[in-house]
Design goal:
The structure is a homodimer.
Chain A: E1 4-9, H1 38-44, E2 55-60, H2 61-70, E3 79-82, H3 88-102, E4 107-112, E5 116-117, H4 120-135, E6 139-144, E7 155-165, E8 168-177, H5 182-191, E9 194-204, H6 205-215, H7 217-228, H8 233-237, H9 245-248, E10 256-261, E11 266-267, H10 272-278, E12 287-289, E13 292-296, E14 302-304, E15 313-317, E16 322-326, E17 330-335, H11 342-351
Parallel strand pairs in A: 1-2, 1-4, 2-3, 6-10, 12-14, 13-15, 14-16
Antiparallel strand pairs in A: 4-9, 5-11, 6-9, 7-8, 7-9, 8-10, 16-17
Helix pairs in contact in A: 3-6, 3-7, 6-7
């Protein structure tokens, strides 16, 4: 597709998938599904739609070399390295400069590096529909049709229908809503007029830069300074405040569209439990990633043993809905409904004198 | 104690503690409690009572070299190696020859290599009491006062009181009872007149050899042939039938005594759950052997990570009464009340083409 660029935002950290994810090994760099890392998968699924020179990666200095090692097929020049993480707005601004330098008529898709998408062909169709919408000068949000009253995602309320591109209906976005409380989430799920905000966006590069100029003039001025002299990046970046694109741009923008995608098999993989929701279980109802599973009366288990290698055998008797994550130095066992509580373990480790090595 | 010999019977195999125990690494060779193997612990606890030259080990050829490596402090000559396992009667007969060769007036205590005994000083007192009883020409069975209606042990019914040695009451043994069904076990627990048969015995060596001559004349003849020419051992052994000392000797013997020991903290360590019964839990109610434990809302767990080493961290959230056994190639997770079902896993492995490496 002409003029179309993919920008993979791959600078995030976090320990929600501890013990597999660590400070120096964030989610996108993990072989979460067994063979390839989420970052590699994120690039792979774009290949049918984007030539390698049109795929850019924004990441922070801490992860840049690991990213380059994982994806040598992308041009070296396509890795845009933030000196430090400053949230999605500055990252997207920086990438927009690089897209405009290549193609002032460019359309950029801002995509995530650490999400799971089961139906990759459908995802590419969605990106194509979004590009066509962006050509009409909309800021396009890729929405996800909600399947449960999630309180961990932002929502987008849809307004008037704008048309249909291939199988996707496009709507004007009427309102962005931050992570809601449960009753509100339930109401939004029920009314059928809200989509999850996937954090993925598509727009013409000139359009988004104009929005930066209008809504975030300080940041826009900093970007202009960087564009004039990339050697100043590190210095200018020190004065850049941390802001998300949602708060900094989307909530105050006009002509925003949302495409609520169904049946993508999308997950932000925000917890171990989320893998159980999107991956197909085996005959016994378990999801086994890496290693081998030997079981008596076991169902609903997530067993992740990829880091220990294919010879590793995980044997279970009489357990259900249990998460077992087995890494070289740490073993985690917890019920799936408590998988979010790995945060508490991470906090404990921060307090322990011997904890740092496991973080 | 003069004339007193300990014979540690260490030839047993089995996979009830799989995945830690394996075909070539039976229970007595495992660092089940963390630092030392059960065999090493079995020798250690005898040291205050027996000089090393009075401690013999009967084992089978398959395990002999591993045993010797674990216990270099015993004289090389004190390892009595069966060419193949034939049950406890032939093993004890063979050891009796070695004791008699050293001391025709010897008293031999036939002891186990793979049991846990928490109160080791009390155990030595029990052995001393048993030796005094054996001096009076009794065949002495060390009994264990039952604490629950076990169906996995044999029982000994006590008869008349024979006296008291230190804190131990000694009774005539009236009847040996094989592993009972549950109602019978409950009745025996309730009547207060039965002790578990620990499989440990004390007697004068001449007395037991006389019993062999009387009750197992064929085996006695074979032993006599071996004693005359130890080079014939392998050949003679081929004709030795497998028999237990209980069936072959004890059930038909007269002047049998039983000393029902209380508060030894004894366990045959017949399953992972049994460790939870005898080891002291930590403050949170868990038993952790080897490795480190990081927990949220975890209680009644047995975590065995000794084989992966002290850096290994096992993290649990919201689990109770769970057994977690972590070895280099296998991880086992099961509720404590189903720990006996590792047999089913072992059976599955026997059927799998890739199973042998884990057995």
């Amino acid at each position: 597709m002409e003029h179309y660029y993919a920008v993979i935002m791959a600078g995030g950290g976090g320990t929600r998938l501890w013990p597999l994810s660590r400070q120096d090994r964030p989610k996108q760099l993990l072989k979460l599904l067994g063979e390839r890392t989420l970052f590699q998968i994120a690039v792979d699924r774009l290949a049918p739609l984007f030539p390698p020179e049109n795929i850019l990666v924004v990441t922070s200095a801490a992860y840049a070399s690991a990213m380059r090692q994982q994806r040598p097929a992308l041009p070296e020049d396509n890795f845009v390295v933030e000196p430090a993480p400053r949230g999605t707005a500055p990252a997207i601004g920086l990438a927009a400069l690089q897209v405009r330098r290549r193609d002032p008529s460019g359309i950029m898709a801002c995509l995530t590096a650490d999400h799971f998408i089961r139906d990759e062909a459908r995802f590419r169709d969605l990106l194509a529909a979004a590009a066509q919408t962006a050509q009409q000068d909309y800021l396009v949000t890729l929405g996800i049709a909600p399947t449960f009253p999630a309180t961990g995602f932002g929502y987008v309320q849809r307004g008037d229908a704008l048309g249909t591109f291939s199988v996707f209906e496009v709507f004007r976005a009427q309102r962005f809503k931050e992570k809601p409380a449960l009753p509100e989430a339930e109401a939004m799920l029920a009314d059928g007029a809200h989509a999850w905000n996937s954090g993925m966006f598509v727009w013409r590069v000139e359009r988004i830069l104009a929005e930066f100029a209008r809504q975030m003039p300080d940041l826009h001025q900093q970007l202009t300074a960087i564009e004039a002299d990339w050697a100043s990046l590190a210095e200018v970046w020190q004065g850049v405040p941390t802001t998300t694109i949602d708060y900094g741009i989307m909530e105050g923008a006009e002509n925003v569209a949302v495409i609520p995608a169904k049946d993508l098999g999308w997950s932000d993989v925000g917890s171990w439990e989320s893998l159980l929701e999107v991956l197909a279980p085996d005959e016994a109802g378990n999801v086994v990633i890496g290693g081998k599973h030997l079981a008596v009366a076991t169902t609903g288990a997530l067993i992740h043993a990829a880091r220990q290698g294919p010879r590793r055998l995980v044997a279970t008797i009489g357990v259900s809905d249990l998460v077992i994550v087995d890494t070289e130095d740490v073993l985690l066992v917890c019920p799936r409904e408590r998988a979010q509580e790995v945060r508490a373990l991470v906090e404990q480790l921060k307090q322990r004198p011997d904890g740092e090595q496991y973080l």
